[in-house]
Prior knowledge:
- This protein is an alpha+beta fold.
- It is built from eight helices and seven strands.
- The protein has a five-stranded mixed sheet with strand order 2-1-5-3-4.
- A hairpin with a 2-residue loop joins β6 and β7 (114-115).
- α2 runs antiparallel to α6 (195-208) and α3 (147-157) packs antiparallel against α5 (175-186).
- The radius of gyration is 20 Å and the shape is elongated.
- Iron/sulfur cluster (SF4) binds at residues 159-165, 176-177, 180, 224-226, 228.
Amino acid sequence: MTIHLRVWRQSDPNAKGNFEQYSLDTVNPHMSFLEMLDVLNEKLTKEGKVPVEFDHDCREGICGSCGVVINGTAHGPQQRTASCQLHMRHYKDGDSITIEPWRAKAFPIVRDLVVDRSSFDRIQEAGGYVSVKTGSAPDAHATPIGKEVADEAFDYAACIGCGACVAACPNASASLFTAAKVSQLALLPQGQPERKRRVIAMVDQMKAEGFGDCSNHGECEAVCPKGISISGIARMRREYFKAILTSK
Ligand code: SF4
């Protein structure tokens, strides 16, 4: 099938970017979206042109590296699907597709479709871990956790840190990401010793990175490839205010 592309090109963080148009007439419907971009890059390389930079790693929806805005939607039209797991069979012969990077002040563009998401790493480093020495792997069920609690913690732990929630939010808020990381540990016994310190540090770091505030638009949940619930944001707010009010 033939696909017409409009791709954001930007040679470095300070360059003025622009859209460039390309047409591919060898797209197979079974290709993934990133494989289609591979075909584009092979074509550009053969023509002696600079290939399009885009982030990718596992290509299995696990690593969170990939992510582009496709026709105005972060990760494209399929719900609960990362860009790497989107397939070209969802498009028709002759379709036009516009591809842009995540756009947010806290995610500066590195080149073309690649943005710097190290602000997420710094939020995680601010407190998204347990510092207790756990020794070697404990026996299974050594710390009993109710199934409903374990399931809920796991749902939050499914966040892959892709950043689509930020890209989709009109305020460029990182609340869904931060809420997922806070909630995952706040629900489990291993996360209790640092519960208050963690939420204060992570929320403060989120603000320091220049992400906007959450005003409950819900766009984040709509585009999240892992279906992280916006109810996590309410949990994070409760955790934050409780921690502020009860910390010395
Ligand atoms: S909450 Fe969802 S959209 Fe946001 S970083 Fe995690 S997986 Fe990606």
